[in-house]
Amino acid sequence: MCKILALLAGIIGTLPAAAQPADYPNKPIKIVVSVPAGGGVDTVTRLVAERMRQQLGQAVIIENKGGQSGNLGAEAVFAAEPDGYTLMASQPAPLTVNGLLYRKINYDPTQLEPVAVMTSIPNTLTVRPNFPAKTVQEFIAYAKANPGKLNYASQGNGTTSHLTAEMFQQATGTKLVHVPFRGTAPAIKDLIAGHVDLMFTELASAVELHKAGKAQILAVTAQDRAAALPETPTMIEAGVPGFRSNTWNAISAPPKTPAAIVAKLNEAINAALKSPEVRAHLAGLSLQPVGGSPQEMAELMKADTRRWADVIRAANVTIE
After folding, report:
1. Would you say residue 132 has pLDDT above 50?
2. Is 3.40.190.150 the CATH classification of the domain at 27-121+247-315?
3. So what's the pLDDT on residue 124?
4. Comparing C-alpha atoms, which of 107, 58, 38, 103 is closest to residue 79?
5. Are the folds of 27-121+247-315 and 122-220 the same?
6. What mean pLDDT comes out for the span 36-45?
7. Would you identify the CATH topology of the domain 122-220?
8. Is pLDDT above 70 for 142?
9. d(CA 218, CA 211)
10. What residues contact residue 259 under an 8 Å CB cut-off, 6+ apart?
11. What is the separation of C-alpha 249 from the centre of its chain, rounded to a whole number of angstroms?
């Protein structure tokens, strides 16, 4: 028996740090943000990371690795050691639709470990400032009367703004022309200049333009109205049943990260999101703090993947 105990002690002593999370964390944590600096995911992650540092007692370093709708960041984290010291902050795409859109990706989204959803924000149907329709029903009627003549901007092929427009066309029997841009900023610029007719874009990107009269938000694509625009109906209220589209961002970990480490990170993120200062900052950005368990994040990922898979197949959307 003594020999067996000694042998077990020797084996345990050689296990990697990932299998021994009791002292985690004992060095800085790196969060790979799957978008360039300055974007919505980046802003939220930096806000949450500062609170995580206070909660965990270790520095939390941000590294931006944008490209291919989040694939490059996801690849880096997928290949990292599952020890809790390399995490990913991302929009939904690398966790949900990229595996459906790209012919080849160098990671398996289903193997990344969900940690926590940080925030959520609805999209909006936003049109150029001088667009003749002032309601969703007027817009649908106008689009049906002018098939193939309205141009919609997106953040790029396969992005949520693109897929939401495809879902809208499928739901309403309209036909729009896609004009993909490289990101939100250039798309919004052409929208307010009147070079494109509409865009399904995040509330945060459109609300101030709407209030200033530089664009018109006809509806939000959430279950409930947005606090920032209480007079603006949801798409469902406007007569498009079941139409929902939102963007969220979340923290994930490499495959096989120990449950105890995931739980500790989840606790720190939830604590950050409950901070009055963080909540006030997020409210100013029209962002809704989410939090919750890793299991709830996993269910959200599955639900989003199912929803967009139907849209992608119906529209035959692929990216080389």
Report:
1. yes
2. yes
3. 95
4. 107
5. yes
6. 85
7. D-Maltodextrin-Binding Protein; domain 2 (3.40.190)
8. yes
9. 12
10. none
11. 4
